[in-house]
Hints:
There is one protein chain. The protein contains five helices and no strands. It is an all-alpha fold. The longest helix has 28 residues, at 24-51. It has helices at residues 6-17, 24-51, 60-71, 76-97, 108-127. The protein is globular. The protein has one domain (6-127): Four Helix Bundle (Hemerythrin (Met), subunit A).
Amino acid sequence: MSFNWDDYKKLAEHLYNDPDSAIPEAYYRSAISRAYYAAFHITKKKMIDHYGFISRTSNAHSRLLDFLREKKIDNPIIGEAWINLKRLRVRRESADYDDEYSYEYHDLARSSGFALSYCERVLEAISRLRSGKKQ
Length: 135
């Protein structure tokens, strides 16, 4: 059974809406990360299905963003997905790797909310692409 990547979005929403008061920073950082991975994997699958994107290489995250940037010229829906996934990735990298979080004035709760919004925008744009054949 394949994993439903939308479950990461649900987990991100749960972590954002109900952070543990003893460790809220870990909850908010995890919410940002899970929102990114939901958007990344759902977008990657759609690009494989629609355009034959090859994901089994190094730097899949950068390659996907580059691929979307190239395709957005012909398709504004992909442009919406690209810009919001790019915004989300920057926040995810800071949440996952930086000792001092560096966005929204170090307000992780606020940044988590933005991350969920960017994730939703990516998924909404991607859902508008036609299914079943390459465009």
